[in-house]
Amino acid sequence: MLSKKKKTNEKEVVSTTYASRFFTKPISRYHIPDDGMDADVVYQLIHDELNIDGNPALNLATFVTTWMEPQAEKLIMETLNKNLVDQDEYPQTGIIQERVINMLAHLFHAPENKEYIGTATIGSSEAIMLGLLAHKWHWREKRKQQGKPTQNPNMVIGADVHVVWEKFARYFDVEMRMIPMQKNRFTITAEEVKQQIDENTICVGVVMGTTFTGQLDPVQEINTMLEEVENEKGWHIPIHVDGASGGFILPFLYPDFKWDFRLSHVCSINVSGHKYGLVYPGVGWLVMRDKSDLPEELIFYVNYLGSEEATYTLNFSRGSAMMVVQYYNLIRLGKKGYRQIMENSLENARYLAAMINKIKYFDLINKDIKLPILALTVTESAGFSVYQLSDKLRERGWIVPAYSLPAAANGIKVLRIVIKENFSRDMADMLIQDMLRFSKELTGEKKPKPESSCRNQVHKNIC
Predict the structure, then answer these.
(1) Rg (CA), the chain
(2) Whether 188 and 248 share a structural domain
(3) In a domain, 170, yes or no
(4) At residue 268, what are phi and psi to the nearest 5 degrees?
(5) For residue 222, which of 13, 101, 205, 439 sits 20 to 30 Å off, Cα-Cα?
(6) CA distance 368 to 181
(7) Residue 7 falls inside a structural domain
């Protein structure tokens, strides 16, 4: 009698992960498979597929943090399963959130005689929407009390704002009065803002570190203008400061620069913890100057998590991990540590800018570099575009975005380089070498010397 062949259990076979039968078949892309797979195999398949993504260390496009200390990563793993909104079950996370809000309020010079208020968010986009909602509701209630119509609210912003401002205007039915860029000016002015505001203006938006060029809107001049308008016409128009990029830089590099609650009309500030707050995505913060700036109608009280809790967010459930490591960074680094990191980043940005200035193919848009963000154009005589150079840099792993500025400056095409904590002087030298080499290739000029001799060249006149 013939014996039946015993079916082999794949898990009993001694072989490497790559010898698995799953490596000879495609994984499911759009449908849940009927049968599951071994955990190690699934991990390896997805891990290997993600290798196609760019290297975060070379991603000069993103403002988002791409490196944290091992101790912070350990805290992240320990708190990934804690829901921040569930403060009845996880009361200490709520206490830590309050500590961070207080730290930021003091950092931004919130008035001591006011009862400031704030919240953690997924990022600055949510924080901006929450801040603007508060201003819309506050404006509407004030108009009702005055017996005036509440239709047609507007907000005044520049074309240098993040897209979330446009989303807010559309989603929440607010007229967006956007001041266009000019060919030689990429921020707004107080005079332009004055021409756009009226009694229906819920707020003026200013940006401390624009996404497009890394520049600063003239918040002090705008604040002075709004004070004059209030004295003349009685309109109290608040300012919302989008400090997504600059909010964690300006207090440490320029402590005497008034952009925050020291200005009378600044009533709300958002900041991205996951940018120069040095935390992985996603965490942002909203801080209101005074609790009275946040209408009570926008705060919800829920008790289905075990006890009554107040919530002012667009979402409900969210992880605690990034909020917790924001607290870790603040007490780990302190003001001195943040200052040192920001000084190093700015010094490397200015070094890179000085090297770029020596290359005949480029022009820096922002000559006065206040933040570690560079925006540059390709000269008309170069013979190649920013898009071509961006593609060439990708060949070496560098991710440097190329894009056009908004109207009426949309004829200007730029490259942006964001310098973060983990961008070293050596990396700056390597980037310059690659920019120079690829520029010469694109123009058809003679290729530069081998890299071994190029290294010293960047310290000389590299053109």
Answers:
(1) 26
(2) yes
(3) yes
(4) -155, 145
(5) 101
(6) 18
(7) no
